[in-house]
Design a protein that fits this description.
By secondary structure, this protein is an alpha/beta fold. It has 15 helices and 15 strands. 43% of the residues lie in helices and 15% in strands. It has a 7-stranded mixed β-sheet with strand order 2-10-9-8-7-3-4, sandwiched between helices. The protein has a 4-stranded antiparallel β-sheet with strand order 11-12-15-14, with helices on one face. The chain has a two-stranded parallel sheet with strand order 1-13. The longest helix is centred in the last third of the chain and has 22 residues. It starts with 16 loop residues before the first helix and ends with a helix. The model has no long low-confidence stretch (mean pLDDT 98).
């Protein structure tokens, strides 16, 4: 490999949410942070170099959005995802979640129904409920292999019976790791268009897709999808840049785009993004392709390592993983309730991980593990899990 994914400087004492925040969130005994979606890999050296060069200038005043930054986004979407977009369609958001909040706020009214596919990234629930909208859940269906899919008849019925106004899609899906097929996307788009439902597609995990699968941006699949979708994405998950707070809204529809622009500028006084965020994202999109290809190989190796260990624990099952660096593990076979499972992981396994219940009722008994870390650390965490499992359940 050209890049080093085997080492990382200590993140303790750097105000890292993942590491310095672990004790407060999970307990001082926890040693292995497999929770928040933040990787323990140094960002591409080309990104670090670009930031160093900009910092060397020494002046960090107000800045405009660089045209070269917009061009880099356009080129990335085209070359990596065959998604032809225009610079004018691109809007800034400090994060994907704020972009979801804005979309719900601007394109629904208080009391309106907003639908998600559960289990799903839990901030979606807050974006709906905290703004006085009504959450509608359409549960994903899980087969005997643990593979998740959309019951499209249930999807259509849920939309019609609840008069849903906005559908928030997670693509690829967090936490179940699905890469939606064109057939699935086409049918969801058809149902939404037929029923006047706007699609807000969170595609922040679009770049980390395993061999044999292809991420299709929702808006890229047809003209009607393009006209009926707000895409929210970022380089932050891909290149470990979340602290620079730079996300991207792709809004082809001019009326919606102008409404978001007006809201951001007149209600929030947000005129643009973080200066260093612009620099990092442009460098990542222009020079990070090889680094990303190697990263995906590392994540796939970590996934296989996880599967090897879970195979030694017959009461547990790993959900087949197609994308992201977030593994979804079924631990219902342990016979523990959620509080007991939480305590087992923290106190006996010394692992900080996200409990599945936060992603919806059908996440009960599941755990989301972040495997975006060095293999040695993941091995230690899995050895700890295996030892605790054998002591308690064999």
């Amino acid at each position: 490999m050209q890049y080093d994914f085997n080492s990382c400087p200590s993140r303790y004492g750097t105000n890292s949410t993942k590491w310095d925040g672990m004790a407060g969130g999970f307990g001082a005994e926890c040693k292995y942070p497999l929770w928040i979606a933040d990787m323990d890999f140094v960002s591409p050296p080309e990104v670090v170099k670009a930031l160093q060069e900009r910092v060397a200038h020494g002046v960090f005043g107000y800045s405009i959005t660089p045209d070269s930054y917009l061009e880099a986004i356009v080129e990335w979407e085209k070359t990596r995802h065959n998604f032809a977009i225009e610079k004018d369609w691109i809007l800034f958001s400090p994060g994907v979640v704020p972009g979801v909040y804005w979309s719900v706020n601007l394109f629904t009214q208080p009391g309106d129904k907003v639908m998600v596919l559960t289990p799903v990234y839990n901030p979606f629930f807050a974006a709906i409920k905290n703004q006085g909208r009504t959450l509608v859940e359409c549960p994903l269906q899980r087969d005997e292999r643990g593979h998740y899919g959309v019951d499209l008849d249930l999807f259509a019925r849920t939309i019609r019976e609840n008069d849903v106004k906005v559908f928030i899609l997670c693509s690829p899906h967090n936490p179940v790791g699905r890469v939606w097929t064109k057939a699935e996307i086409d049918r969801m788009v058809d149902i939404c268009v037929e029923n006047g439902v706007l699609i807000v597609s969170d595609e922040i995990h679009q770049d980390i897709v395993f061999e044999g699968y292809e991420h299709l941006p929702t808006a890229s699949t047809s003209q009607k999808a393009l006209e009926n979708t707000i895409t929210i994405t970022a380089a932050t998950k891909t290149f470990n840049l979340a602290g620079l707070q730079n996300s991207i809204l792709i809004v082809p529809d001019k009326v919606r785009r102008e409404k978001i622009q007006k809201y951001a500028s007149e209600q929030l006084d947000i005129m643009g993004g973080n200066l260093l965020g612009y620099v990092a994202v442009e460098a990542a999109y222009r020079h990070g392709g090889q680094w990303l290809d190697e990263l995906i190989a590392v994540i796939e190796q970590n996934y296989r390592l996880l599967c090897d260990y879970i195979a030694k624990m017959p009461k547990l099952n790993v959900t087949p993983m197609e994308a992201t660096y977030l593994a979804w593990v079924d631990m219902n076979g342990l016979g523990l309730d959620d509080d007991e499972l939480d305590a087992f992981l923290k106190k006996e396994c010394l692992i900080a991980a996200n409990m599945g219940r936060v992603y919806g009722p059908n996440g009960k008994g599941f755990v989301r593990f972040n495997i975006g870390c060095q293999r040695d650390m993941l091995t230690e965490a899995l050895e700890s899990l295996l030892a605790a499992y054998n002591k308690r359940f064999t």
